[in-house]
Write a structure and sequence with these properties.
single chain; about 130 residues; mainly alpha; 4 helices; about 90% helix
Length: about 130
């Protein structure tokens, strides 16, 4: 049985997805801008030892920023939309329901009986015409 809390969470999935997408895009823009500025800043302004220390710090911050940026990316990739979440929840319940599994057999039996009735009516009409 699905609870009200589960329904609420399913309806909030699209908002979570939009928020994570905004974070991903903003993080990407900030990361690229920061990367360009940092690379230009470190490239020619310092002598050998200072330059090595700056590059080391720059790489550490860049890797940390990449990891932080990867988190909303993963959320965007792994969060289903509301429709997908409903399908994930309902399809197994429908597919495993015994009453629903009987429907095709019952429908085929009903269709077969109706088809036989039509054929009998058609044959009776043909005999009446002769």
């Amino acid at each position: 049985m699905i609870t009200g809390w589960e329904i609420y969470l399913i309806t909030r999935l699209d908002a979570i997805l939009v928020f994570a997408t905004v974070l991903t895009v903003a993080g990407g823009i900030v990361g690229v801008t920061w990367g360009i500025i940092g690379a230009v800043e470190v490239s020619d302004l310092y002598d050998g030892e200072t330059k090595k220390a700056k590059w080391k710090a720059y790489r550490r911050y860049f890797v940390n920023a990449l990891i932080v940026w990867a988190i909303p990316c993963c959320v965007v990739i792994m969060t289903p939309s509301t429709k997908q979440a409903v399908a994930i929840y309902l399809i197994p319940n429908i597919a495993n329901n015994e009453q629903i599994q009987k429907i095709p057999g019952n429908a085929a039996t009903l269709l077969n009986a109706k088809l036989e009735a039509w054929i009998d009516d058609f044959r009776a009409n043909k005999k009446d015409e002769k």
